[in-house]
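Most newcomers find our protein records easier to grasp once they have seen one. A record pairs a protein's sequence with a compact description of its fold. An example says more than a description, so a record of this kind follows:
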Amino acid sequence: MANQMRLTKWLAASLLAVFVFGVLGCSPSPREQVVSFQGLTMGTSFSMKWVAADDSQLVPVRREAGALLARINQQMSTYIDDSELSRLNLAEAGQLQTISPELQEVLLLAAEISDLTSGAFDVTVGPLVNLWGFGPDGRITHQPDQAEVDRLRSKVGYQYVHIDPANSMLMKEHDQYIDLSAIAKGYGVDQLAELLESHGIQRYLVEIGGELRVKGVKPGGEPWRLAIEAPHAGAREVQQVISIEQGAVATSGDYRNYFEEDGVRYSHTIDPRTAYPIRHRLASVTVITDTCAEADALATALMVMGEEQGYNFALEQGIKALFISKADEGFVTRFTPGFAPYLQASIGR
């Protein structure tokens, strides 16, 4: 039961700000339908939907998806005491550790995005996430002491984690603690998409906690339509609708998971470069890329950077991104040129 409770909490700090609309509409042809199922994983929900003539693949896909997600949890959760990642975090500095191909794939991508973003994305930020009350150690109501922030900041640094891909080995230079909560969920989405494609399914939408990946069109030839949530702390409204036929979508934001002390709001998004929660006006950012793991990590990095640095970085790198920032009244939305083709009519402000 304890492990189940820890599993339920995993990734609870993630912002799940994208919902799915209109994916269960009736088909004009009785030979074509949307087959779907849903469940729980990584502390949130997941769903898989695909277009098919019948539901003959439902049972095997559901069984294989459950096994796949359980394996990813056992590899990458920090809430499961005996997961591969938990054991790796307990390993002594300077010792080579064998890692699974799946964990290696995620860590290599994380390192690549950390280099690209100059450390705005950093999977070793875990000790600071925990210190600020957004990790496995539980919530806090008071700002940590400066001395403790400084002490744990010295442990943060993706460049101190070394991977030998040829031999599937990893070594921590110091006492690094790795937290994959900003990339593992996206990786799980990608694995579910690959599972469907291994069954010959080429028209689908798969989603874990709002991070998703789609391919093809719905019955009737319509694209999948998705709603991006307006960043209100106390209400759920739609800010923008997008249409997409292929790609992965991930959103990061700071408007639901936070604590307040003396009128100051402390976001769950920790800037690895400063060791403090972000304090800018960017409320959420949505990224579209080819893979959900990349979209997940880039959305986090852009959220850390803020409305100006993040937007300029996305422009320079050709990233398809939508930024929603706090204004004196309501919110201001802007997007990079690559995001424009996905936009539908704006719904909320």
Observations:
- Residues 10-23+32-349 form a domain with the T-fold fold (CATH 3.10.520.10).
